[in-house]
Fold this protein.
Amino acid sequence: IDLTPLPTTALQNEKYEQLFSKFDTFNPVQTQLFHVMYHTDTPVFLGSPTGSGKTAIGELAILRMKRLHAKGICVYIAPLKSLARERLKEWQKRFGGNPLHWNVLELSGDTHHDRRALEKADILVCTPEKWDLISRGWRANPSEKSGGA
């Protein structure tokens, strides 16, 4: 497909644009998926080679969710604890610092956060097992968890 690269200014949010300041335009895969990830609720399954920009595409969905639900909590589920830790470190720098100052927390067998800390999180990075335990608790006590996405 012959595409004109989409400029990062398409985010139409100065703070979000700063997150992508290392490049002026999205790559071809990101350009193709930008609209659906940033402007719709359409589910997407993306299979793409390493280095093709999948993480940035996922980040577009996070930015959309937080733009629409500022107090919502994004849950990122990594298949392995080591991958969760890697994503946590990267996103604590990326989203936790300037310009967003979001609270990024890890939920794994190695971490313990009280309910108040979890409710103040913007992004939770966890393993499937830990998410299962946490979400079962929320389902069992729906009044304890208000809002969130």
